[in-house]
Amino acid sequence: MSESASAASLFDPGASGRPRRSDATRTAILTAARERFAADGYERATIRAIARDARIDPSMVMRYYGSKEGLFAAACAFDLHLPGLQGTPLKDVGRTLVSHFLDLWEENEVLTALLRVGVTNAAAAERMQGIFKEQLLPVVRQACPDQGQAPARAALVASQILGMALTRYVLRFPGAAALSREEIVDWLAPTVQRYLTAEEP
């Protein structure tokens, strides 16, 4: 059986709930694509290089994602899994969000890879904007006192979250990289809290 046919077959077609090889192939492609897009940027990354990194035939990449644009869109999809704020004291919202984002940056490299690409690529930057608009803005609306100010407040929160991520995980500034998780939360939480709940200047 060829590698392409093998990758598209099932581990166990008759067993309910078993993972499919196609799922494993998709995961391998997306992992390779994120790493390649992060390292080379959108323009220089090629389907052939991504397929080589994933150890599959380039035709499999096209089969699953249709085009480089389709693969890029899939690679950039990301769920922030933001916590619901119901039951969270208003004074603790800033700390809750900073802690959550630190967990994301430290446990999942996808968001870091997207940030790397977004710094230099307009499509990735737009994708990042969409992720934060669609997922962060609704959370900010739950906490801010003036709904009309929610977009501006969400942008300010994002500036702190993304700024720390950029200096700590992408550019690796020594001062940012040396901070402990607790220190980052202690420094950033009050600022994020102010952006969320303080009266408009």
3D structure, described in words:
There is one protein chain. This protein has helices at 3-8, 21-44, 47-54, 58-65, 68-75, 93-107, 109-120, 122-143, 150-170, 174-178, 181-197. With 201 residues, the chain is mostly helical. It folds into 2 domains: 3-75, Orthogonal Bundle (Arc Repressor Mutant, subunit A); 90-197, no CATH class. The longest helix has 24 residues, at 21-44.
Coarse structural class: mainly alpha
Radius of gyration: 20 Å
How many strands in all?
A: 0
The H-and-E topology, N to C, reads as: HHHHHHHHHHH
- Strand proportion, as a percent range, falls in under 5%
Helix content: over 70%
Rough shape?
elongated
What is the CA–CA distance across the termini?
Answer: 67 Å
Summarize the structure.
This protein has 201 residues and is mainly α.
